[in-house]
Amino acid sequence: NEGLVLIFRHRESPVSSVGLNLHGLDLINDYEIVYNTTNLKIQRNGNELKNLTVNLPEQSSELIHYRRVK
Length: 70
Hints:
- By secondary structure, the protein is mainly beta.
- It has 1 helix and 6 strands, in the order ββββαββ.
- The strands form 2 sheets. A 4-stranded antiparallel β-sheet has the order 1-6-3-4.
């Protein structure tokens, strides 16, 4: 189980955060999440990831890679 999420925020967008509903996750297994722009790595279980919130500054983007930890 792994995947990518690519998020964009337009310069004039009033929306600073987005709630993501990731599908196909094994709710009891752990996942490593890597935020590409900051290289931040965190670990959460699938249940915590099914409702992931991401905040973005104006005119920015984020690439998030998640993969199940074996």
